[in-house]
Design brief:
Belongs to the binding-protein-dependent transport system permease family. CysTW subfamily. Helices cover 80% and strands 0% of the residues. By secondary structure, the protein is mainly alpha-helical. The longest helix has 34 residues, at 52-85.
Length: 270
C-alpha cells in the first residue's frame, strides 16, 4: 500500500518545466494538421476527388504503392531471414546498408537509382541494350523508386519478428524430416505473419507517400508518373484546394496505418 501510494504520488507530480515544452511540442505537431482540416474544401470535396486529375493520381499511387509492396515482400522477407537467421560474414554491415534508405535523403536515392538504372547507368545500360528496358521516367520507375525507400520498413519489421520467434518449432520440424524450404513455408513464415503484415502495411504507406526519389528517378508525367505527392506539389501552384484534398487523402491513409498497427506497438512495448 505504501509503495503504491508513493508511486501514485510520484506519477501525479508533473513539473512545469517539462509540461510546457511537452505542450509546445504537441501543438507543433498537431496544429498544422488541424489547419489542413480547417482549410479543407469540405463542400466540394466529393467533386474534387472525382476529377480526372485527382482520380488519375490516386489510382496511379495506389497501383504503384501496391506493386512496390509486392516487390518488397518478394525480396525483403528473404533478406530479413538472412539477417535474422543466416550465418553470413559482415551481417552488421549488411544490416547497416539495408537501413541506409531510412536516413538517406530521398532525392539522393533517386540520383543513385539514375546512376545505376538509367540508360547510361551501371546496370541500366545493359537492360536497355540487351532487353530494350528503360526504367527512368516510366511507371515501372515509380515502382522501383518507391520500393527502394520502403523496403527497409519491411525488412526491419520482419527481422524483429524472426528474432522474437521461438526457434524450437523449426528445430522440431527439422527433426521430423522437413526440408529447410518446407520448414520456412509451413512453420517460420506463419509464426512471423503478424510482423510481415505490419511491415507490409508500413511499407505500403511509405511507398504511397514517396516524393523525392520518385520525382528524381521517374519524373513528373501526368498519367504515367504523377503520384499523389507529386500531384500535391503541382496543385499548390495552380489549385491549392486540390492540393488540400490530396493531402487529406494521404493524411487519412497515415492515420489508418497508425490505428491498424497501434495494438501491435502497444503489445511490443509491454
Amino acid at each position: 500500500m505504501i509503495r503504491s501510494a508513493r508511486r501514485r504520488a510520484s506519477s501525479g507530480r508533473r513539473p512545469l518545466v517539462l509540461v510546457l515544452p511537452a505542450l509546445c511540442a504537441l501543438a507543433f505537431l498537431v496544429v498544422p494538421l488541424l489547419g489542413l482540416l480547417l482549410r479543407a474544401p469540405w463542400r466540394t470535396l466529393p467533386d474534387r476527388l472525382l476529377t480526372a486529375e485527382v482520380g488519375q493520381a490516386l489510382r496511379l499511387s495506389l497501383l504503384c504503392a501496391s506493386l512496390a509492396t509486392v516487390l518488397c515482400l518478394v525480396f525483403g522477407i528473404p533478406l530479413a531471414w538472412l539477417l535474422a537467421r543466416g550465418e553470413v560474414p559482415g551481417r552488421g554491415l549488411i544490416r547497416a546498408l539495408v537501413t541506409v534508405p531510412l536516413v538517406l535523403p530521398p532525392v539522393v536515392g533517386g540520383v543513385a537509382l539514375l546512376l545505376v538504372l538509367g540508360r547510361r547507368g551501371l546496370v541500366g545500360r545493359y537492360l536497355y541494350e540487351w532487353f530494350g528496358v528503360a526504367l527512368p521516367f516510366t511507371t515501372a520507375g515509380v515502382v522501383v523508386a518507391e520500393a527502394f525507400v520502403a523496403m527497409p520498413f519491411l525488412v526491419i519489421s520482419v527481422e524483429g519478428a524472426l528474432r522474437a520467434a521461438d526457434p524450437r518449432f523449426e528445430e522440431a520440424a527439422a527433426t521430423l524430416g522437413a526440408s529447410r524450404w518446407l520448414t520456412f513455408r509451413r512453420v517460420t513464415l506463419p509464426s512471423v505473419l503478424p510482423g510481415v503484415i505490419a511491415g507490409g502495411v508500413l511499407c505500403w504507406a511509405r511507398a504511397l507517400g514517396e516524393f523525392g526519389a520518385t520525382i528524381t528517378f521517374a519524373g513528373n508525367f501526368p498519367g504515367r508518373t504523377t503520384t499523389m505527392p507529386l500531384a500535391v506539389y503541382l496543385a499548390l501552384e495552380t489549385d491549392p484546394d486540390d492540393a488540400i484534398v490530396l493531402s487529406l487523402v494521404l493524411l487519412a491513409v497515415s492515420v489508418a496505418v497508425l490505428v491498424a498497427l497501434r495494438e501491435r506497438w502497444i503489445q511490443g512495448a509491454i
